[in-house]
Amino acid sequence: MQSRRRFIATAALASIGIPRLLVNAKTPSSSTACTWSDDVRPTSIAVVGDLQRTSDAEKIFLSRSDNHSERSLILNTIADEKPDMLLLLGDQVGTGDDDDEWTYFDAVMGKVKDARIPVRAIYGNHDYGYDKGRCIRNFSERFPYQDEHGASVVKLGSIALVTVDTNIDQLSSSEIDRQTSRYKKWLGDLEEDPEIKGVIVAAHHAPYTNSELGANANVISMFVEPFYNARKTRLFLSGHVHNYERFLTGDKMFVVTGGGGGPLRSVDTSAGRRFQNDGYRSKAAIRPFHYMKLTVGESSLKAETKFIVKNTFKTGDNFSLGLYDHGTR
Q1: Model confidence over 267-322: pLDDT tens digits?
Q2: CA angle, corner 277, sides to 275 and 283, nearest 5?
Q3: What is d(CA 317, CA 307) in angstroms, rounded to the nearest whole number?
Q4: How many other CB atoms sit within 10 Å of the CB of residue 180?
Q5: How many domains does the chain divide into?
Q6: Is the dihedral of CA 221, 140, 119, 324 positive or negative?
Q7: What is the tens place of the pLDDT at every residue in 6-29?
Q8: How is residue 130 annotated by DSSP?
Q9: Shortest CA distance to 15 belongs to which of 63, 53, 61, 57?
Q10: Model confidence over 68-89: pLDDT tens digits?
């Protein structure tokens, strides 16, 4: 008899039109792995956070919607636009040790994989579970070119991307120390690299947010402080909060973009909100599902956030950041 978890997954997939066969299929790792190449030099980068499905408990007890159509619309649109790469900000799935969740992920990412768009990803809290070994296996099968915890540095032409694992409760003290020292070294090495004009850091948990989840003190001390002290760092991306927020401090931008399909959460928009350096102002406490488009230029990094409004995309926010000029060093 199939387990209750597998039964629920089968019923859910059937209800949204994905063949039941997918649930029981043992997909070879070669077909689950996302594309990557070390010679990627993107001028266009799509960014999506929190693709996770809504859990049965959330739907039953909290009346939260599943959002399959929005999730599919975002990923299929990205596949059609075919950016030079896609960055996933964690919580790819609802539970990282549930193989059925990853089967759904493989299905909904189908057009992206068919388009052979290079993908990088980081761990969200939902990408972990009770069986940590299975979580790492499932993640590594999809993203085999990254560290087992998704922490990495990659040069992308004139910019560099540094990804970190902010799930501190899932890491041993030695893993925390190793990641912290590597992160500081990566930023230091990029400071001295004459080819690099800008650095993007990607984490799952938001260092700054006006949501009820609150700012993450560990992320601030471990990752934001070195980010502030580096000259070339420009953009700090995070998800976790299923909403859109943007904060500006000097020439450093902090963006929370968690609108990939997880159940939306509200943020405080009142005059008494905790962080008032928010660069994106909206009276709406809940912003639409969305993804970001980054454009890398010779001297600037431009961003456009595309909100889903009545089943189509409209620009919800945009901004530009100047890159580091080695001539003024």
Answers
A1: 999 999 999 999 999 999 999 999 999 999 999 999 999 999 999 999 999 999 99
A2: 80
A3: 9
A4: 15
A5: 1
A6: positive
A7: 433 433 433 333 333 333 333 434
A8: S
A9: 53
A10: 999 999 999 999 999 999 999 9
- What is the Cα–Cα distance from 309 to 66, expressed in whole angstroms? 17
According to DSSP, the residues that pair with 45 across neighbouring strands are 85, 294
> By CB neighbour count within 10 A (0-12 exposed, 13-18 middle, 19+ buried), where does 13 fall?
buried
For CA atoms 242, 243, 249, 251, give the dihedral sign: positive
What single-letter amino acid sits at 195? E
Say how far apart CA 119 and CA 175 lie, in whole Å: 24
Instruction: State in Å, rounded, how far the first CA of the chain is from the last one.
Output: 67
Sign of the dihedral through C-alpha 119, 123, 127, 128: positive
- Distance separating alpha carbons of residues 227 and 21, to the nearest angstrom: 46
DSSP of 145-175, one letter per residue? TS-TTS-EEEEETTEEEEE----GGGS-HHH
Listed residue (274, 165, 167, 182) closest to 226, CA to CA? 182
pLDDT in tens, 144-183: 998 888 899 999 999 999 999 999 999 999 999 999 999 9
Cα gap 329→120, rounded to integer Å: 31
Tokens for 110? Answer: 């189908």
Domain with 136, as residue range(s), is: 4-328
Q: What is d(CA 313, CA 78) in angstroms, rounded to the nearest whole number?
A: 11
Residue 316 CA to residue 262 CA, distance in Å, equals 19
Q: Which of 284, 283, 238, 286 has the alpha carbon at shortest distance from 263?
A: 286
CATH code of the domain in which 217 resides: 3.60.21.10
Taking each continuous run of H as one helix and of E as one strand, the counts in the chain are: 11, 12
Do 90 and 50 meet the contact criterion of CB atoms below 8 Å apart? yes
Tell me the β-bridge partners of 247. 254, 278
Tokens in use for 30?
Answer: 């070669």
Gap between the Cα atoms of 244 and 2, Å rounded:
39
CA neighbor of 126 nearest in space, from 227, 258, 17, 14 = 258
